[in-house]
Amino acid sequence: MSAQPDGAELLALAERVVALAAGDEQVEAVVVRDLGTEIKVYEGEIESLSSAQSQGIGIRVIKGGRQGFAYAGTLDVDVAAETLAEARDNAGFGTVDEFAGLAEPDGVAPAELPLWSDALASFPAARKVALALELERAVRGADPRISGIESAEYVDSMSEAAIVTTTGIRAYSRDTGCYVSTYAMAEQDGEVQTGFGFSVGRDPAELDVDRAATDAAERATRMLGATKPRSERLTVVLDPWVTAQFLGILAFTLNGESVLKGRSLFADRLGEEVASPLVTLVDDPTDIRAFTATEIDGEGLATRRNVLIDGGRLERFVHNAYTARRAGTVSTGSAVRGFKSTPGVGCMATSLVPGSQGQAELVRLAGEGVLVQEVAGLHSGVNPVSGDFSTGAEGLRIRGGELAEPVREFTIASTLQKMLRDVVAVGDDLQWLPMPAAGVSVVITDVTVSGA
Amino acid sequence: MIDESVISRVLGAALRTGGDFAEIFAEDKRSSSALLDDGKVEELTSGRDRGAGIRVVVGETTGFAHTADLSEAGLTAAAEAAAAAARSGGGGVRTVAFERRDVPPAYRVETYPADVPKARKVELLTRADEAARAAGSAVTQVSASYGDSRRRILVANSDGLLTGDDVVRTLFTVSVVATGDTGMQTGRESVGHTVGWELFDLYDVEELARTAARRALTKLDARPAPSGEMPVVIASGGGGVLFHEACGHGLEADLVGKGASVFKGRVGEQVAAKGVTIVDDGTMAREWGNYAIDDEGHPAQRNVLIEDGVLTDYMWDLLRARKEGRASSGNGRRQSYQHLPMVRMTNTYLLAGDDDPDDIIASTDRGVYVKHLGGGQVNTATGDFVFGMTEAYLIENGEITDPIREGNLIGNGPEVLTRIDALGNDFAMGPPGTCGKDGQGVPVGDGVPTLRVSSLTVGGTAA
């Protein structure tokens, strides 16, 4: 990638656009460039190798309390000028909103995080291919019951973004990331089960191929012989991977936009006890362990550590500049966006503060229940507005405090409100994942399991 | 979009170091959208995405690169990158003579949305907002969105194919939140077709808004969904996603080829109840998953996947079909020029039967009537699927009774297909959908008549 460490090229383009602003308008230009490689292997051969460079510019114009937006997937200067004209034209059609406006510098200096790896930037393609092939070999060799591989891949990206505004913001950040991931199939007596495994890092040296392979093989083989459990109310132990997916949904209910627009079940509950005292929920994009860590938010403000729930008490919602102004508070540096859209609000790196017990101890504590290792259909089965949820699940039955037979084709259902209160233990196995949340094992009582 | 002689030279560059196949996929997509939320038209958005993806195939390996630079130099650089990625020895120079294949557009647009004044798009949103709010005092939030896109593509490959397509899509969605004693409930309605502004001659946005509001208001009185196995009746047009998930994905040749499908090696076998016929049809003019050619240049087709319960064929893209020595079925699709194509569905539907829909409900003693399904997900290797019910009612003593709150349905594709024991005579297509696979989203449609699955697991909270 031709990226200079200081982002001079992208900043220059953004500045040229912002310089074209008329006196009575605010203009924001976001310029993004991403270079990535994706290698898929199958049966010892490269199935595909894609090298992708994408870039684009997004321009926001605010004039007379109205906002307009346009984007283009190119860094061409002439196209940028046309895009500004289009955004300006679009601004004529919005509703006048007294809170409309860009972010303004707030004096918080961005954390200086080691998010860029020169080692990744110069890592040869042949070695990326070797990693993917090694992953596939390791999965096949992990267990004699592994019958095939649905996918085995190596993926990396090097991204940079510049944001410049007429309000005085001038920000740039860049980061690298890579992962290996695989879906394995295990077969026994004609029955097939699947399991996935992955490992993420900022540079390839951080990837643990063996761990990805053994996780995939174990998840697939331990589901062999799974049956449908009977319907009952049970204690569940959520695997870190599953907890992280739930945190993603919970985060939606704690964002300033959902709250202001009457779509959050926690809207009027700031300062109240909403969860078990064991629950402390933090969103911290400056935690470099997070795959999604970043120094600046989608409007160019510094990111910061935000405590959302502290010992069960609802402490804070996250805001961007607009929702903060409307709510009479300040931005928490939580604007999220791509160059193809205006900034939304969202958590970027959410995690529960871990407890002190491992998953095996949590299973003992649960006594009778289910360890949920995978959920399916969470996106369609959860209503983040009402809090109702029902999701497909698979995992292992827990009997007498020990892991027992595998179970599948059942759902677990409750409400987010009730589930937060029913947390009886949080594990010590914090795990950062290729998503904006970390996982940790959690024990929740009184969940409806629907099976046979 | 690109001059024919440039295409020829770029394909030559792609194959200069050897290779069995090379392809240029160029795309120019313009889109616009408008969103009204919380009583305010938040903004209008315009976007332009233009570029080309080039792939080079050597043996079993595909190299791929894409570029936003459509100049000859930009394309040649991408071609060389793709060739290097496919990494072959070989040598020699190949020239390609094209056979231009002009495929008539699947639908002739009456009014291009780009020609419609922006103020008229905004007006649709305000009308929907007012109609939804007027539907009941319990309506507390309304959001309405309008979107259109025009996607022009060009496909040229080293087999001499040169063709293109021009598809316009227009979409309108209303979401409503209603608040009552039991908390907040949501309702949604959306329409989308591969048509232009004439979409709004076919649909009245106020009517769509009232439908969304009614869904939210109805659920304020809803009971928790039951849990456990029971008969499930799916309403006409409301549950095609079940078959998209339950069997469609498992019939995609790329997954079948890797052994990651429960349907592998089962062509010719009875895999569904008698009377069940499932079709994937990219030729349905105006439907959301419709196109003239797929993203590899193959004309869209109507493909019968399961006929009277017997598995007849899988869906194919170019590379998988080539490997098997057969023709593509027109199912090679990609999200954009930045993506490799893979096997994808178009409009997937279950043909109608002879049963009277009222009789199907009357003959169901106790179960669930699903008027509308949300999104779903399937594990193709095991066939296990799950999807959400967005509007559903209890069936008690052969009658539709109380509305129930969100719950999931969970089951196994092959099992569900064999448990269809009633098929109505009232086929309808459902709302527009986006199918996600391997990180790529493409527009798809689905449809079903009223039908009954004799036993399916409903995952609610009530015992």
Please tell me about this protein's structure:
- The complex is a heterodimer of chains A (452) and B (463).
- Chain A is built from eleven helices and 20 strands.
- With 452 residues, chain A is of the alpha+beta class.
- Chain A is globular.
- Chain B is of the alpha+beta class and 463 residues long.
- Chain B is built from ten helices and 23 strands.
- Chain B is globular, with a radius of gyration of 24 Å.
- Chains A and B meet through strand 2, strand 3, helix 2, strand 4 and strand 6 of A and strand 1, strand 2, strand 3, helix 2 and helix 3 of B.
- Strand 2 (45-63) of chain A pairs parallel with strand 3 of chain B, so a sheet runs across the interface.
Structural features:
heterodimer, A: 452 residues, alpha+beta, six-stranded antiparallel β-sheet, five-stranded mixed β-barrel, 11 helices, 20 strands, 23% helix, globular, B: 463 residues, seven-stranded mixed β-sheet, 10 helices, 23 strands, 21% helix
Please give the structural blueprint.
The complex is a heterodimer of chains A (452) and B (463).
Chain A: H1 8-18, E1 25-42, E2 45-63, E3 66-72, H2 77-90, H3 118-121, H4 125-142, E4 146-165, E5 170-188, E6 191-201, H5 209-221, E7 232-238, H6 240-253, H7 256-260, E8 281-283, E9 306-310, E10 313-314, H8 321-327, E11 335-336, E12 344-345, E13 350-352, H9 359-366, E14 369-376, H10 378-381, E15 388-399, E16 402-415, H11 416-421, E17 423-426, E18 431-432, E19 438-439, E20 442-450
Parallel strand pairs in A: 7-14
Antiparallel strand pairs in A: 1-2, 1-4, 2-3, 4-5, 5-6, 7-20, 8-9, 8-13, 9-10, 11-12, 14-15, 15-16, 16-20, 17-20, 18-19
Helix pairs in contact in A: 4-5
Chain B: H1 4-15, E1 21-37, E2 40-58, E3 61-67, H2 72-86, E4 99-100, H3 118-134, E5 139-157, E6 161-180, E7 183-193, H4 199-202, H5 205-220, E8 227-234, H6 240-248, H7 253-257, E9 278-281, E10 302-307, E11 310-311, H8 318-323, E12 332-333, E13 342-343, E14 347-350, H9 357-362, E15 366-378, E16 384-396, E17 399-404, E18 407-412, H10 413-418, E19 420-423, E20 428-429, E21 433-437, E22 440-448, E23 451-459
